[in-house]
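So, can you check?
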Amino acid sequence: MTHDFLPKQIHLQLTEDLADYSCPEVTPVDLSRDILSSMLQKALRRADKTNALAAAHALIANEPGLFWRRLVGIAFEDFGHSNLGLTGLIVSVAANRSVRKAHGDLRLASYLIDQLTLTPKDRRVDDLYMLAVAHTKYAPCHSGALLSPVARELLSRIVNALRS
């Protein structure tokens, strides 16, 4: 689902940032979509802009929707709490076809990847999710699962750490 809405201030800032941004040259790669998706995530984890851009450009050329969904997932999994503004921008751009059309998928992807490679990694959000899944006891309730006392205590500590 896409929504053609991006807050005006965010769109103005993005437009200004993109005006000064020059897209780097990218060497094309010919790999399967699964390998490209994995390559994108691994490259971003390592702040390897060259390989991240190569994977992004190949995915956008063949499956732009897959690229944008994957970038959103990577933003949450690997960068999560370290730059919420950037994570929010990625989600907004991914959900907004008119912004992507106005600025170009490749240009936006290059800019966002550049920003991610400069952002410290933070896997706490993903770790919190994985912890909740690992320590879930399945029982009937509104969410479909209950947390064990150990998981509840660990989640409480993690949430408190994220707040500080």
